[in-house]
Design a protein that fits this description.
heterodimer; A: about 550 residues; mainly alpha; MetI-like fold; B: about 350 residues; alpha/beta; D-Maltodextrin-Binding Protein, domain 2; 2 domains; 11-stranded mixed β-sheet; disordered N terminus
């Protein structure tokens, strides 16, 4: 019953933090909520938030389908590298990604430099809704692609031979084979992406262009930071929780929960009858090239920016090494903590799903607990926790522990989404057998479930760790002179005119994230079946 | 790899334990350390290694037999909200880094105490008689440009507003950044009731509105706009550190809005005596001499050697614009809303 305990902890933290905000505000929460709902500025905020999230989701999912198809039926040099590199964008800190976006698409970016070299006028297209959409597609297209690609690669070779015998054309293959397979995955993937885009913060602040494209998350930040209007912050957080939560729950209910791709998806493409068709070749070449350029150029730019010679003096700086140390410590412990909680919550969800139908609602509820921390704005959570802790102790002396705990909560949603389907598959195969043999508790976990859970667990740890490494929201609240991380250091360098050193720090942060990701994910795959794990020892 | 889970669990426990131990050790260290600690809440570019913070810390610690700790918020507005969040339980003895436009609101919190510093020691181009807030530096907001790329910058705010879409600028959000708020009030001081229309005209020139000064200035140095909202003193950094003379502040005929950065002591200070000492230290030469070449702002007392050479090249404002702080406090919310509406089109 670790699951129930974990759910209780998460619920207590979120409810406690928001409750503390409301209590400190001293205004009747319902009055504040109604006042916000009657405010035309809030309504236009909600409209814009929904609009950009819906567009981002639509674009990410719609573009992922042709990309996944192309990658599924092609095998080319660098395919694996492309898939792996683009998966880094899921975990690249949004601040670094925004810098990379500017370096490629900004007014003095690569695209405009190219235009200028060709004698064309420079164009402004990055800031505003375009910038937000660009960044959101950059983050989420690889995620959606990976989900779809893994599914397409599960189709057996024999099926393709039959399809070839039937003389199926590419569009028939899509309609009869691929679409029915992908259709079931879309709601879950869309739900997760919608959630991420709805609550996006740093990207919107940098590339949004100004007040015309503010989101609810930004408004909460301003309510706490600028107006110190805690009841407004609580009211806006509540609107976000309910609205976004309801929409995400709808998606998840449709799709049986979002499924995160477990395998890296770099297994070679299979020989398919539609691969040789000229039209398909042409389309695939265009799609893959365009995606590679769009997804890899900001990463390349983020690294290229570090090429300026002045920046490397940073390495001689004790501040840098301290920030690096804290980044590693915080990221690893937050990642590990997130995985422990996620495993407990996943177990609870799977147990509830196995019960008779009236428990199913509870299973969805257990799933939603894990995304709760993604829905509640971190600034509101942080402010609320500050208020809670100040009754007992000095929040600052808890600094590192609070940063780790909050980051673990923020990464929880991802870890749960990765672990739940994996655990579901493992337990679906093993539960009845174990019950029959009387294998329970530690032994069942260690000998029956573990072999198949190692890979997903490592993947979840990789994602959670890298997310925590890139965190800016929490560390900005609790950072001190001593406790600083690489994202905070980048911000401080920028604040001191040290643009070149900030670029170096950003490139190194990128490297740290990518390094964590690959090393940890690989740990789970070495020496074992990397995929959905069979019952090797049963 | 079979042993992955136990080692995974073990390492988790070990890491968590290590953090707990580190935290406890820090806390315990604070208890055992003999010298008392003075806690100053400020924003991070003041505290950072490249800001004035470390030198000021060293200078004060050399004479106080105490430890000076900074707690850095991510922005000037963040300092106040942090103290408000912590309430009377705050560990802060001093807040340093609010500005003239945030003073009235900060006073309303009732958390601050009088500074008791003799204000006749100040030597600055503005009158000061506030009993709670003590200025520690000042500067003028200005648009910075690269004269190699923009040979003819606008000569007034009016010229900027009517420049047409071709001239691109970067500004900061008045809700999260003091330069952003400064510009809002600057436009208000020049345009009054016509500010809404001025912002509407300006809307097409604005590339983006960033959260803080750092993002905007970074984007400007990356070539994302022709001009960026900063200070008349920003070129001094490029001259003194990089030997680069191409960055200039555009002098505006209407004059420039002024920013006066202030510090105040908390009523709940746990080290009231030390805090008092530090407040007096702020107007000393030891503190003030650090300001010009790390904070890149003007000091509030006369320095024996005068200002650094780089400052000789800086633009001097035609007039110093400042709105009445009470008027600002009363109308800020409405003016910010006006700004948001004008830019939201």
């Amino acid at each position: 019953m670790f699951g129930v305990a974990a759910a209780v902890v998460v619920l207590t933290v979120v409810a406690g933090a928001l409750g503390a905000l409301v209590a400190a505000a001293g205004r009747d929460p319902w009055t504040a909520l109604l006042a916000e709902l009657a405010n035309p500025l809030t309504l236009s905020l909600i409209r814009f938030t929904l609009w950009q999230a819906a567009l981002s989701t639509l674009l990410s999912v719609a573009l992922a389908i042709p990309l996944a198809r192309a990658l599924a039926r092609r095998d080319f040099r660098g395919r694996g590298a492309l898939i792996r590199l683009s998966s880094v964008s899921l975990v690249i800190p949004s601040m670094v990604a925004a810098l990379g976006m500017v370096a490629v698409h900004g007014r003095s970016g690569w695209v405009n430099d190219l235009r200028a070299a060709l004698g064309l006028a420079r164009v402004d297209y990055l800031y505003g809704l375009t910038g937000i959409l660009f960044a959101h597609v950059f983050f989420n297209l690889p995620l959606a692609t990976r989900i779809f690609l893994n599914e397409l690669l599960t189709l057996p070779q024999a099926g393709w031979r039959q399809a070839a015998l039937c003389g199926m054309r590419p569009r028939h293959i899509f309609r009869r084979i691929e679409w029915p397979l992908l259709r079931g995955l879309i709601p879950g993937a869309a739900g997760m992406i919608f959630l991420l885009c709805f609550t996006s913060f740093a990207v919107v602040l940098t590339l949004g262009g100004g007040p015309q494209s503010a989101t609810l998350e930004v408004a909460v930040y301003q309510a706490v930071r600028f107006d110190f209007d805690l009841s407004k912050a609580a009211a806006l957080s509540l609107i976000q929780l309910v609205l976004c939560g309801a929409l995400a729950a709808g998606f998840f209910a449709l799709g049986g929960g979002a499924r995160f791709p477990l395998r890296a998806g770099d297994a070679p493409g299979v020989a398919r009858p539609d691969a040789g068709v000229f039209g398909a070749r042409f389309i695939d070449a265009v799609v893959i090239t365009a995606a590679a350029v769009f997804l890899l150029s900001p990463l390349a730019a983020a690294v290229a920016r570090a090429a300026a010679p002045g920046g490397w003096a940073l390495l001689a700086d004790a501040e840098f090494w301290r920030a690096l140390k804290w980044t590693v410590v915080i990221a690893l412990s937050a990642g590990a903590l997130a995985c422990l909680f996620a495993l407990a919550l996943a177990d609870l969800t799977v147990t509830l799903r196995a019960r008779p139908s009236r428990w199913r609602g509870l299973a969805l509820g257990a799933e939603m607990v894990s995304v709760l921390t993604l829905l509640a704005p971190p600034i509101a959570l942080g402010a609320g926790l500050f208020l809670l802790f100040r009754r007992f102790t000095d929040a600052l002396s808890l600094g590192p522990a609070l940063v780790v705990g909050l980051n673990a909560l923020l990464a929880l949603a991802f870890a749960v989404r990765i672990l739940t389907p994996a655990l579901q598959a493992q337990r679906g195969r093993a539960d009845a057998l174990c019950a029959g043999l009387g294998v329970r508790g530690w032994n069942k976990w260690r000998w029956i479930l573990w072999p198949g859970m190692r890979a997903p667990l490592a993947y979840a740890l990789a994602v959670a760790t890298t997310l925590a490494a890139g965190d800016m929201g929490v560390i900005a609240l609790f950072g001190t002179e001593e406790l600083s991380t690489l994202p905070l250091l980048i911000y401080r360098l920028l604040g001191a005119y040290r643009v070149e050193q900030a670029a170096v720090a950003a490139a190194l942060l990128c490297t740290v994230c990518a390094g964590f990701f690959w090393v940890i994910e690989r740990l789970g795959r070495v020496g074992g079946d990397a995929g959905d794990g069979e019952l090797a020892h049963a | 790899m079979r042993k992955f889970l136990p080692s995974f669990l073990l390492s988790t426990v070990a890491v968590v334990a290590a953090i707990a131990a580190a935290t406890l050790a820090t806390a315990a260290g604070a208890v055992h350390a003999a010298p008392p600690a003075l806690n100053i809440y400020t924003y991070d570019s003041f505290e950072s290694k490249w800001g004035p913070g470390p030198k000021i810390k060293a200078a004060f610690e050399a004479q106080c037999d105490c430890v000076l700790n900074y707690v850095a918020a991510d922005s000037s507005t963040g300092i106040l909200s942090r103290v408000q969040l912590e309430g009377a339980a705050t560990r802060a003895d001093i807040v340093l880094g609010l500005d003239n436009n945030l003073m009235v609101e900060a006073k309303k919190t009732g958390l601050l105490a009088a500074h008791h510093v003799d204000l006749s020691r100040l030597d600055a181009p503005f009158a000061w008689d506030d009993p709670v807030f003590l200025p520690f530096d000042y500067g003028y907001f200005a648009f910075i440009y690269d004269r190699e790329k923009l040979p003819r910058p606008p000569a007034s705010l009016h010229e900027l507003v009517t420049a047409g879409d071709g001239l691109k600028i970067l500004i900061q959000d008045p809700r999260s950044s003091t330069p952003g708020l400064g510009l809002l009030l600057w436009v208000k001081a020049v345009y009054g009731d016509d500010a809404f229309d001025a912002w509407r005209q300006l809307a097409d020139n604005i590339v983006t509105v960033t959260r803080g000064w750092s993002e905007a200035y970074g984007l400007f140095l990356d070539g994302e706009a022709d001009m960026v909202l900063s200070y008349t003193t920003s070129p001094a950094y490029h001259i003194a550190v990089d030997g680069e003379h191409k960055y200039r502040a555009a002098a505006f005929a209407e004059g420039h809005a002024m920013q006066i950065e202030v510090a105040a002591q908390l009523a709940s200070a746990r080290q009231p005596v030390l805090a008092q000492r530090f407040m007096h230290f702020i107007v000393s030469r030891a503190f003030q001499s650090v300001i010009p070449e790390s904070q890149w702002m003007y000091p509030v007392v006369d320095l024996p050697g005068g200002l650094p050479a780089a400052y000789a090249e800086l633009v001097q404002p035609a007039a110093r614009l400042q709105l009445d702080p009470h008027l600002v406090a009363e109308n800020k919310a409405a003016w910010v809303e006006e700004f948001s509406r004008a830019l939201s089109r």
